[in-house]
Automatic annotation (TrEMBL), chain B:
Designated name of the protein: 6-phosphofructo-2-kinase/fructose-2,6-biphosphatase 4a
Species of provenance: Hippocampus comes (Tiger tail seahorse)
An example Gene Ontology biological process: fructose metabolic process
InterPro entries: 6Pfruct_kin, 6Phosfructo_kin, His_Pase_superF_clade-1, His_PPase_superfam, P-loop_NTPase, PG/BPGM_mutase_AS
Gene Ontology molecular-function annotations: 6-phosphofructo-2-kinase activity; ATP binding; fructose-2,6-bisphosphate 2-phosphatase activity
6-phosphofructo-2-kinase domain sequence ranges: 20-235
Keywords assigned by UniProt, alphabetized: ATP-binding, Hydrolase, Kinase, Multifunctional enzyme, Nucleotide-binding, Phosphoprotein, Transferase
One Gene Ontology cellular component: cytosol
Active site positions: H243 (tele-phosphohistidine intermediate), E312 (proton donor/acceptor)
Chain positions recorded as substrate binding sites: R242, H243, G244, E245, S246, E247, L248, N249, R292
Length: 537, 442
């Protein structure tokens, strides 16, 4: 049904929209004038640092308009803010209204709540790793660390007794120092999310944080971990407390006894988030390591993603095996991309992989591949059921598909150089960037978190992205992680991180790793561009 | 699925299935007093699951009751001491469960949504036993709400138009319905944190203000929880349109990344006027990362967000070709596409099925947001529209999404009202109907 358009009236369309969650209209102008904690900094940025900072920002890919030539931006042009969108999150090609999809418009503080040994630091670190990987700049502030720096030597649980006035003063001062650093991080380092890792077990302490956040227009999301299973708590203490700097000179039993007394100190004043009194706060309560959750008043996209992530992680022991397909025909001749089959040596690797997997005798192993021949052929040799994920396909090299590096240098020397300048964000013409890959792989990571033992047979760029997630590698390191053919990486979560075992299955293969060359200028000589290309037929 | 053997290698195994979402079928069971949004949630969830490729069907016990009792007299039918009424209701529940069993076992279903009040532990026990007997996983969705305004609004939106009240005036209907709710209240046993701690469920409180989630067992339950936690019922509108007419459009070529024609630019300007005239509060504008949508958005002079996942379907080797050229160079592919346009994947490109998977985060975010204008492309718009209007995989690739036309979608009752607004700027027609002859030898 067509409705003829009538030119009725022109409504004023406000050109500068206040950020979502910003204070009332009257205060918007004030907010823009470099108020501490203000997310919009409209002072012109004259120095190179600003540009570099933004380049290092892990925002989503931009679309250069008109061509796929990488933009060369002058720093001063980047700071005109037209739409209340933070400087670093806008796209770099001079369109003041354009931006990447916004997870959130205000800085967010995630505040942990819970008795000691409830997994707060585990959750803090894991969540931070995930958020940074998907491109949200996040940092953990652990108040216990501040306390250790302030008091030098830990004596005993007596420090934590609620009637120890002097200690209370120190602990409060540490919290405030940490909050000050949080402000610094949001203001000068353009951070987007902070995880405030401390017990925060009293309403007073939480009020302190809420006032601080309100003053600075930060959003607050609480994550409370409640656990009364003594086995889980004992396991926690064993895994992460015994090796803590606090207990360096103690024997195991002493340490455990002292720590349990420490927990008792907190229990005296612990007030959990209350369903009634705290109904206006945004929070998630995690019961007994995830068997139950209570979610209250989720405000925006990033909080929704955080809740989804927290509801999918678990602590059941398991291992994740990452490897590439066996050597392919195109690998042999030094060509990238394409969809070729395995070479003779690649087929040998597939059998060796089958032997290796059988020897590991992993219970209920899931096997995942991409939709490309070479991973499928590798999985076929295992003789077990496997699932194909299109999201695991190798990075799309667009116009450079199936070219050798020498051909890319010959046909697209400028593109080749631009890629070396910023391998993470560079997008092949009609292809993808590593940054795009990370976005496409996010559901894979989410499902890996849900699962237990999994073997992922994938590709070089894909494996780099997955590895960067598990090993907390930055966007700068990610594209240069070494993922050689015919090598299986076994990742086992342990304490706050991941143990990696690298197992080379003894079948020779070409090297496909190309390091960053010395000279990355667009006007470099071909030899300089090709100096790090690995040997091939 | 067409059998496309690769030239020199053995064909890919036929088990080319995306991630297996569920191993055994799932029975979602709603719980809650009347007018708490159970049917709204059931229908919406069913629509979402079907769209992402999980065959789902809802079974509304009230429907069975209407078929059995034919004429609804009054709330007295629901009185807890009405033995005859109770017997009929029990039978209806059984009949519905029987149909559930058939759908999941033989009908190709993976998820069944059992939509009824299920307010007593006894009734829920019956369902759990049924599920155990039939190898089904059970997931409860309870909606708890005490806000009289919300309940009133529910009644007005969906109860007054119900077949039960066709011959009543508004006041009579509301009064009767309130008494009906009362009948349930006394025997209502909400899911209990302690007594029901072994069950898998989500309790939605006050239309999404708060959620209690217990024992999520697998991937599909996790996705369901995520979805339910992102939907809301705040009134709003979603505007879908394509970019203005592009250079390649005029040449009859598909894909590519060309700019707007003069007419396309005119559309962009008219779109700006239209949007301003609508006077929408806090409108978000989304585009893809292709020139033509960006140029269209630029004319609006408001902030907009660029989503790579909103890019047009990748036609692989057929990018920037005309349909005549595709017929010339790839006649086999062209025919295969006409045989199954939803699942067909262009060589080195994508299928509509791939598109749906890539667009799922967009849908999730659209559910979270309020007023949004999405400037996208033909195939992408078809996928989004199919989600809102509950179109099947067969219909989806042939939905009409002409250039220079804005579709305004407003959620109402259990569905979506669509207004199609042509902005009076001429453009080529890019819609290709399913041809009569689709064999590969045509």
């Amino acid at each position: 049904m067509q409705i003829a358009y009538l030119f009725v009236c022109l409504l004023e369309c406000s050109r500068t929209r206040p950020a979502e969650g910003a204070v009332e209209d009257g205060k918007v102008e004030e907010k823009k004038r470099n108020h501490p904690g203000s997310f919009v900094d409209d002072s012109p940025c004259q120095d190179k640092k600003c540009f570099e900072l933004t380049l290092a920002q892990r925002g989503r890919s931009q679309a250069p308009l008109g061509s796929h030539i990488w933009e060369r931006m002058k720093p001063t042009e980047m700071t005109q803010d037209g739409g209340g969108v933070p400087v670093g999150k806008r796209l770099r090609f001079q369109r003041p209204y354009a931006s990447v999809p916004q997870f959130t418009n205000s800085p967010t503080m995630i505040v942990m709540v819970g008795l000691p040994a409830r997994g707060k630091t585990y959750i803090s670190k894991k969540l931070t790793r995930y958020l940074n990987w998907i491109g949200v700049t996040t940092k953990v502030f652990n108040v216990g660390q501040y306390r250790r720096d302030a008091t030098r030597a830990y004596n005993s649980f007596e420090f934590f007794k609620p009637d120890n006035a002097e200690a209370m003063k120190i602990r409060k001062a540490c919290a405030i120092a940490a909050l000050k650093d949080v402000w610094e991080y949001f203001t000068s380092e353009q951070g987007q999310v902070v995880v405030f890792d401390a017990t925060n077990t009293t309403p007073q302490r939480r009020e302190l944080i809420l006032s601080f956040a309100k003053e600075n227009s930060y959003k607050v999301f609480f994550v409370e971990s409640i656990c009364d299973d003594p086995e889980i708590i004992a396991e926690n203490i064993k895994q992460v407390k015994l090796s803590s700097p606090d207990y360096i000179d103690c024997d195991k039993d002493e340490a455990v006894a002292d720590f349990l007394k420490r927990i008792e100190c907190y229990k005296l004043t612990y007030v959990a988030l209350d369903d009634n009194k705290d109904r206006n706060l945004s929070y998630i309560k995690i019961f007994n390591v995830g068997s139950r959750y209570l979610v209250n008043h989720v405000q925006d996209h990033i909080q929704s993603r955080i809740v989804y992530y927290l509801m999918n992680i678990h602590v059941t022991p398991r291992s994740i095996y990452l490897c590439r397909h066996g050597e392919s025909e195109l690998n042999l001749v030094g060509r990238i991309g394409g969809d070729s089959g395995l070479s003779a040596r690649g087929a040998k690797f597939a059998s060796a992989l089958q032997t290796y997997v059988r020897k590991q005798s992993i219970s209920e192993l899931k096997v995942w591949t991409s939709h490309m021949k070479r991973t499928i052929q590798t999985a076929e040799a295992l003789g077990v059921a496997y699932e194909q994920w299109k999201a695991l396909n190798e990075i799309d090299a667009g116009v450079c598909e199936e070219m050798s590096y020498e051909e890319i240098q010959e046909n697209y020397p400028e593109e080749f150089a631009l890629r070396d300048q910023d391998k993470y964000r560079y997008r092949y013409p009609k292809g993808e960037s590593y940054e795009d890959l990370v976005q496409r792989l996010e559901p894979v990571i989410m499902e890996l978190e849900r699962q237990e033992n999994v073997l992922v047979i994938c590709h070089q760029a894909v494996m780099r992205c997955l590895l960067a997630y598990f090993l907390d590698k930055s966007a700068v390191e990610l594209p240069y992680l070494k993922c050689p053919l015919h090598t299986v990486l076994k990742l086992t979560p342990v304490a706050y991180g991941c143990k990696v075992e690298s197992v080379f299955l003894n079948i020779e293969a070409v090297n496909t790793h190309r390091d960053k060359p010395e000279n990355v200028d667009v006007d470099r000589e071909p030899e300089e561009a090709l100096e790090t290309v690995p040997a091939h037929i | 699925m067409s059998d496309r053997a690769w030239p020199d290698n053995p064909p890919c195994p036929p088990s080319s299935v995306a991630v297996c979402m569920t191993n055994c079928p799932t029975l979602i069971v709603t719980v809650g007093l009347p007018a708490r949004g159970k049917t709204y949630i059931s229908k919406k969830l069913t629509r979402y699951l079907n769209w992402i490729g999980v065959p789902t069907r809802e079974f509304n016990v009230g429907q069975y009751r209407r078929e059995c009792v034919k004429i609804y007299k009054s709330f007295e039918f629901f009185r807890p001491d009405n033995e005859e009424g109770l017997e009929i209701r029990r039978q209806c529940a059984s009949a519905a469960l029987n149909d559930v069993r058939q759908y999941l076992a033989e009908g190709g279903g993976q998820v069944a949504v059992f939509d009824a009040t299920n307010t007593t532990r006894e009734r829920r026990e019956t369902i759990i036993e049924f599920a155990e007997q039939n190898g089904l996983k059970v997931f409860f969705v309870e909606s708890v709400c005490e806000d009289p305004d919300v309940i009133q609004e529910n009644i007005v939106q969906v109860k007054l138009g119900s077949p039960d009240y066709t011959n009543c005036n508004t006041e009579e209907a509301v009064e009767d319905f309130m008494k009906r709710i009362k009948c349930y209240e006394n025997s209502y046993q909400t899911l209990d944190e302690v007594l029901d701690r072994e069950l898998s469920y989500i309790k939605i409180m006050d239309v999404g203000q708060r959620y209690l989630v217990n024992r999520v067992l697998d991937h599909i339950q996790s996705r369901i929880v995520y979805y339910l936690m992102n939907i809301h019922i705040t009134p709003r509108s979603i505007y879908l349109c394509r970019h203005g007419e592009s250079e390649l459009n005029v040449k009859g070529r598909i894909g590519g990344d060309s700019g707007l024609t003069a007419r396309g630019k005119e559309f962009a300007k008219k779109l700006a006027h239209f949007i301003r005239a609508q006077g929408i509060s806090r409108l978000k504008v989304w585009t893809s990362q292709m020139k033509r949508t960006i140029q269209t958005a630029e004319a609006l002079s408001v902030p907009y967000e660029q989503w790579k996942v909103l890019n047009e379907i990748d036609a692989g080797v057929c990018e920037e070709m005309m349909y005549e050229e595709i017929q010339d160079h790839y006649p086999l592919e062209f025919a295969l596409r006409d045989q199954d346009k939803y699942r067909y994947r262009y060589p080195k490109g994508e299928s509509y099925e791939d598109l749906v998977q890539r667009l799922e985060p967009v849908i999730m975010e659209l559910e979270r947001q309020e007023n949004v204008l999405v400037i996208c492309h033909q195939a992408v718009m078809r996928c989004l529209l199919a989600y809102f209007l509950d179109k099947t995989a067969e219909e989806l690739p042939y939905l009409k999404c002409p250039l220079h036309t804005v579709l305004k979608l407003t959620p109402v009752a259990y569905g979506c009202k669509v207004e199609s607004i042509g902005l009076n700027v001429d453009a080529v027609n890019t819609h290709r109907e399913k041809p009569e002859v689709r064999t590969t030898t045509r």
